[in-house]
Amino acid sequence: xxxxxxxxxxxxxxxxxxxxxxxxxxxxxxxxxxxxxxxxxxxxxxxxxxxxxxxxxxxxxxxxxxxxxxxxxxxxxxxxxxxxxxxxxxxxxxxxxxxxxxxxxxxxxxxxxxxxxxxxxxxxxxxxxxxxxxxxxxxxxxxxxxxxxxxxxxxxxxxxxxxxxxxxxxxxxxxxxxxxxxxxxxxxxxxxxxxxxxxxxxxxxxxxxxxxxxxxxxxxxxxxxxxxxxxxxxxxxxxxxxxxxxxxxxxxxxxxxxxxxxxxxxxxxxxxxxxxxxxxxxxxxxxxxxxxxx
Amino acid sequence: xxxxxxxxxxxxxxxxxxxxxxxxxxxxxxxxxxxxxxxxxxxxxxxxxxxxxxxxxxxxxxxxxxxxxxxxxxxxxxxxxxxxxxxxxxxxxxxxxxxxxxxxxxxxxxxxxxxxxxxxxxxxxxxxxxxxxxxxxxxxxxxxxxxxxxxxxxxxxxxxxxxxxxxxxxxxxxxxxxxxxxxxxxxxxxxxxxxxxxxxxxxxxxxxxxxxxxxxxxxxxxxxxxxxxxxxxxxxxxxxxxxxxxxxxxxxxxxxxxxxxxxxxxxxxxxxxxxxxxxxxxxxxxxxxxxxxxxxxxxxxxxxxxxxxxxxxxxxxxxxxxxxxxxxxxxxxxxxxxxxxxxxxxxxxxxxxxxxxxxxxxxxxx
Lengths: 294, 366
What we know:
By secondary structure, chain A is α/β, with parallel strands linked by helices. Chain A contains twelve helices and eight strands.
């Protein structure tokens, strides 16, 4: 994994600080070209990994990258699935089972089985999960996706319920079908690591908030630091600036001193901010791309 | 204090499933699930080791020695399910809106209070740091005499016709007023108490055939006038956005889930650490991390408040008790009555009794 990953919240009107700012961003990035301009700046500054939700509009970005293999030779996608709102809205529209059916490929068998309202055996849950992953991955066909993530709302919903087997199913399918490394986004990192280890998933890629003020680090800052010091995982830090509550230099130098943090994922909308974060990461954590790669 | 309480989450729909996840992750809860749909019951019981899942609520109450229940079924069912639990001396957390008839809500509040049971309703906005901060500033008299209030909520729930969800059926407790407007209204009740007068209410259907998708109303809280503006057919919002604005003789106060903005003309003696002009506080500094985070601190923290009150045998909720939710139910009724008096309501068809009485499975509900 590269040291610095580029996130997508800013493109889709997600801002944890201000609704007004979120709206301004969603106006600015309404056109995919506006997103590409920012991605181009990041790519040209050496930040080649785009960690993105499987939002409908990401498929347009995939199309652009696919159509210009020369320009985007080293461009890497880290898909994060599923796009939660898509499913939440479908549940409101079609009910729980209807929502699952809605996203199934229209090839008869699964639809028939589900619409019959028949109880699903555990084996079938595995089948459903695999199909849903494949549906989400369709937009990335032919593109480089070395790490594939489960979004935090799903990770944490399953984690809380104790539906731990789902993590293993996700892990195995991502490895077997896509030859990729499974990753997990969570707001409850210490709790998740225990469960993943119990499922026999070693040294997992876990992306969680890691910031100096402990913002949205459920389980507590101390516990996170202890896990980073003593356990085996490949941690990705998100929300390192805690939505702007921590000054940039202070935030990055603090992360740079932590053990086990492999990468930082950040979002920015301007060349100035992109370069600023890249320079800080270079100063405190070393080169932004993984060694040995172009 | 009891180390672990035995708690059942009843109704695993959109809210219920996330309640179930949060409660089950709670270190002081031993959690059971109850849902009438075959699909979820089977999937959960087959995949979650050691989980007990019931299909029948009556059986759940009979066979399990429960300390508490979380009721997240469609609103129409709240009344009988809550009563059944209270009569067995089981503490109750119930989803909002509480009851479709405020007199029922009052009766349930009476019953819970008489039995000394913890009773709480899921108005989670009272657990949002920015709104808590707003209340603190209001009570400290920050903006002087309040002269103007606006309470708003917008979001993308009903964007087309022909949906089968119970949320779109008035008889089931669906509709924008019950489901959406209840939130900002509940905040107004929290800040200003009971409305003394309601006027100018307009409930409009946009896409729903049976019920309202938008609400406008003017509420008088004694000398404080407030306007309520709610629309759940607004796709420009990614998810529900609730905001309150207040203008007073000494400034302006605004809050939403992310931030609380205060404008002061003069700094009152009751407030220290504030300056003349703008002071903005963000969720990053107004929020305490819960034990487990799923979809917002407020959802976790309200359940934690409930569980801790039950464990400590406090006999009452720290926030959002039935009595306060009954007040919101009553405020909803005042808006409905006012709307019924208006000329445009006479033209709209009333929900048919056949619908109200129709037996529904829990299967297709959201």
